[in-house]
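In response to a reviewer's request, we include the raw inputs and outputs for one of the modeled complexes. The ten entities were modeled together in a single run.
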Amino acid sequence: MNAGEVTQKLFDAKKKKGKTFSDLGKIIDRDEVWIASLFYGQARASEEEAARLGSALGLEKDLCDRLTEFPTKGLGPLVPTDPLIYRFYEIMQVYGMPMKSVIHEKFGDGIMSAIDFTLTIDKEIDPKGDRVVVTMNGKFLPYKKW
Amino acid sequence: MNAGEVTQKLFDAKKKKGKTFSDLGKIIDRDEVWIASLFYGQARASEEEAARLGSALGLEKDLCDRLTEFPTKGLGPLVPTDPLIYRFYEIMQVYGMPMKSVIHEKFGDGIMSAIDFTLTIDKEIDPKGDRVVVTMNGKFLPYKKW
Amino acid sequence: MNAGEVTQKLFDAKKKKGKTFSDLGKIIDRDEVWIASLFYGQARASEEEAARLGSALGLEKDLCDRLTEFPTKGLGPLVPTDPLIYRFYEIMQVYGMPMKSVIHEKFGDGIMSAIDFTLTIDKEIDPKGDRVVVTMNGKFLPYKKW
Amino acid sequence: MNAGEVTQKLFDAKKKKGKTFSDLGKIIDRDEVWIASLFYGQARASEEEAARLGSALGLEKDLCDRLTEFPTKGLGPLVPTDPLIYRFYEIMQVYGMPMKSVIHEKFGDGIMSAIDFTLTIDKEIDPKGDRVVVTMNGKFLPYKKW
Amino acid sequence: MNAGEVTQKLFDAKKKKGKTFSDLGKIIDRDEVWIASLFYGQARASEEEAARLGSALGLEKDLCDRLTEFPTKGLGPLVPTDPLIYRFYEIMQVYGMPMKSVIHEKFGDGIMSAIDFTLTIDKEIDPKGDRVVVTMNGKFLPYKKW
Amino acid sequence: MNAGEVTQKLFDAKKKKGKTFSDLGKIIDRDEVWIASLFYGQARASEEEAARLGSALGLEKDLCDRLTEFPTKGLGPLVPTDPLIYRFYEIMQVYGMPMKSVIHEKFGDGIMSAIDFTLTIDKEIDPKGDRVVVTMNGKFLPYKKW
Amino acid sequence: MNAGEVTQKLFDAKKKKGKTFSDLGKIIDRDEVWIASLFYGQARASEEEAARLGSALGLEKDLCDRLTEFPTKGLGPLVPTDPLIYRFYEIMQVYGMPMKSVIHEKFGDGIMSAIDFTLTIDKEIDPKGDRVVVTMNGKFLPYKKW
Amino acid sequence: MNAGEVTQKLFDAKKKKGKTFSDLGKIIDRDEVWIASLFYGQARASEEEAARLGSALGLEKDLCDRLTEFPTKGLGPLVPTDPLIYRFYEIMQVYGMPMKSVIHEKFGDGIMSAIDFTLTIDKEIDPKGDRVVVTMNGKFLPYKKW
Amino acid sequence: MNAGEVTQKLFDAKKKKGKTFSDLGKIIDRDEVWIASLFYGQARASEEEAARLGSALGLEKDLCDRLTEFPTKGLGPLVPTDPLIYRFYEIMQVYGMPMKSVIHEKFGDGIMSAIDFTLTIDKEIDPKGDRVVVTMNGKFLPYKKW
Amino acid sequence: MNAGEVTQKLFDAKKKKGKTFSDLGKIIDRDEVWIASLFYGQARASEEEAARLGSALGLEKDLCDRLTEFPTKGLGPLVPTDPLIYRFYEIMQVYGMPMKSVIHEKFGDGIMSAIDFTLTIDKEIDPKGDRVVVTMNGKFLPYKKW
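The model returned the following structure tokens for the whole complex.
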């Protein structure tokens, strides 16, 4: 069972049980985006988390086990072709240098961690069209000198 | 004067005047990230905005004019090598599909606009290490059927 | 059943039933290009649209269900090798900057949406050789300043 | 004087004279998109057209001469990073195969010419947001058998 | 049955029947290169041509049907690694610009069509080593102005 | 003086003298395509050929000398964007494998040389549109076994 | 049976029979490197050679037949990742231009053929560490002028 | 003075003095290929070697100094386009795996060093066409286990 | 059984037996990183080592045999997307030239061998967060002159 | 003055003053590799550090200022061609997955930081050939769950 098949089975189980990512998140006290990351093999559950999700979704034992493995992460293609994902690539292309300048001005030389990091997605109701609000929160890591 | 030289001259003027991006933003009532985008040729000022910034930074006329042109946007290299910018690429690689799933679940088929879009950067003080908070706010655009 | 197999089965059913894309479009009041997009997993049908198409094409239940999923869009290869598709890539290469200039001159800074967007293909009879007329119609999205 | 410099000088002259692409097009009875293509070295003017445009824009002789050369066409980067131009790349990625299917169904095996081809851009006023209408008109070229 | 398998089966049948491409071409009055293109899914036969070839090669019905489909053309890899095919890539690299100059000088601005196009291969006997003669014959398509 | 500048100067001299490639070819008894190859630094003249061409074109000594150097050949970009040159790339993509099969069938295992090779371009007058005829003639080189 | 499977089966047979490439070479009077090339589908045996090798290795008929086909050659990845093979890529990167200069100085404008070509590998015993000696021997092909 | 300019000046001096690489090699008791490597910034001379070559070629002091620097090696483009250099790339593509197999069979797991390595080029006179003989001699480095 | 399947089976056996890489290393007196390299097909065991590991992990005979083969090494993708592995790519991007300068200053012209090479990973306990210590130890190989 | 020119001037000053990286490191109490990183624009000095280095190297004011800027980091080319730097790429290719496995086994899910990170290079004298010892020391960053 390869990584794509694991993902597919998880989505099938989720659909069958009629759960949202948010429903699943509540079961183990995690955010919906983190749950979706787990589905795509981009995060790793503890044995207990895997057991609780497995129970809620009716997963077989070996599928549960896969949730606790260390995944090889990343999408693969250098430039994504899916329009929704591409927009995040475009934001990095267009606003990458500006963000770098503002972060350096505010924090000094270093980076925003993508590991000690959380990401949430909210829906902002707006009569002119609802808005997607993505909030990234990462620890600032100053470059060490030695 | 190519795009890189325009950027360099703007940074030189900013340094000489001792202004932060935030200071400049207040002059024309814009966010600091937007100002930095303008410096990198990723945004376009109105004639009035350009005049006010030009006055605050002591810019020459033709440099002011460049701020009002339609820029060719984007960084260029497919995969960025600068560690700070790369982290945003990594976020897209690792969390792209999870974000796609959650956005589709909450909003339906469509994308988050990167045009009708704002991006702000805040500093969250934390004794274990300050945190960078990036907030992206984009209009949801549903796919049109025809 | 992967995405390519879904496409193949849809084409087989269409051939067997002797329908054109236009015939199928009339059943659910959609354009022929949109129907072809659905066949290639680039669009998403509502449950009702899927049911009606499924009935007209004699599709099995799980194939119908696939029409209602959120697809990962895009062809994949960076530069297409098929001559017909390449011509659209060539048009973007040759006329991309000119179109950008004219759109900016007429509309200001922003883009033509590829989401709030329709695309139709017409046949123009011409004694010197029939002509393909592709009409793209996308909402202009002005860049937000913040 | 390289190709980029020729383009820059033409834009400077156009700005100084306060002409739109449409104004220039009327002088030599050509479409505004074609004029913009000429500015970007993607098209070639006759000696007479170059002379008339040169006179309207106050161009020097050698700049006029450049308008009559055979250009090496194309933007260069495999995947464009400018958001406006990228949308046309995305359209090719998302709608390429659907267009291929519909064109084959309507015309048989062959392609839409990108040479015996015209492209116009219109503005459609719409209270919900103006729309960009791009019309491509290319001769259908059937594959020759031999 | 994917495209590679179709090709393989056609070659097997050809070998079993002991036919050359030239033999097969005579059956439907086509050139040997065109027949080979058909084997590789780069061309499309009419129903009658497919039937005649199918009969000569003893092909099953569904294999015959595949010969009449609209293929997705092109080899795939950006730079071919097979030495024989690479030589044509090298010719394009080395003689591309010279050919462009001579064609423009003789015909004006435009291209040689690769669609309204034939290609034949002849063997020129030479005591110092036989020679391959490739003749390409494509319609000149002048760039349309509009 | 880099390679591009050498080419530009040669074209300027040719224009000034009002010569075609064919005219220049007659001076040293070479084909027009070979002359164009020399202009683009893809071929190498003998000292005498360089002197004769230099005299006809009014070239300075060091420009003449450059014609006798061993050039680093090739255009550079992996996939050409100029439509005329791209068509030769497309021919390699679409007809590469068919040509390989026919050449192997007629000659055995080996390649067509791109070194012991000539290439000519002829104009075939045709009331339905003139045709470009490209004739490539390369020695067949059988693979050596050892 | 794809190309990789043919290779795997040949290696299995070789291992089972306990033969070296050199042993196999002696059977048909060919060099060990050529035999290894045949195993990897980079060379083509005559019917008789295939029969003799098949007999020595106990190969089935259809495996023998595969040795006589015209292979599509080349490894595939643009830059090899295997350290042993990469060293040959590195040699080309580091010593390519120097070799070009020396060959041009000694032979004139042309290339070393990779077709009329042999390659042998010898082991040179050396107390400081044995040495690999690779000898390439290719016909010089002068560029033809025409 | 960048690396390309250093190379150009060295070639100019060599031409002016009428020396071959072999002549220069004799001056400092090095092979002609090594001298050419030095010209291309792929090797590094000792101070004494640089002085002797500088004297023979009439080089200025700072040009001599450049010969003693640690160069950043490698040609750059992933796939070379120059036909002569490409042949070495092709040899790696076609014969890479066969060489790997033979070297492993003869030496065990490890590589041929490209550092403790020499490369010579000889001319083998042959009435059917002279031959280029390239001899690579590299230390075998066994993989260390730990 | 392809390389990925061999790796998967080895990990399954390791998990079932509850062994760490370090445990396995002790059985054959090798470092844990070397053992992991063997699992990923990047190293090669002797027959005796394979037998001992096979016995400890309960491997079948043909799986044991695979451990003694000469592997084709390397991960494949040019730029890794997994964040942990990417950091090593980033280190090479950011510190590659500085390391080169320091190594040249200390050792002269040459490289650090990646073949006569060991790599160990230690855990350094630190109250502010444990640290990963990677120690690479490779023989310096001076460039040979000839 | 672009980044490459800054680097070149720093190296010239270092050579003129006859300092090693280690000498310079002692002046501001930093490691030699960090100093080399600063020379290549991969690190950033404080104003005081820049002043002291500037004094020791006799740098002009604006060169000193460049040492305190936030650099855009990274080498650029996806795959390095310099043999010394390539070895680190090769180590990542060959040992990347094994390192990932061992780090996960010892530390859990997370990465080794390349920011809170030091790198030193030592020379280990060895009669069989000196050895380069590279020690990387990076904080382990566990993936945050949310």
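As requested, we also summarize the result in words. Strands of chain B lie at 110-124, 131-142. Chain B touches chain I at residues 79, 81, 83, 86, 90, 93-94 (CB under 8 Å).
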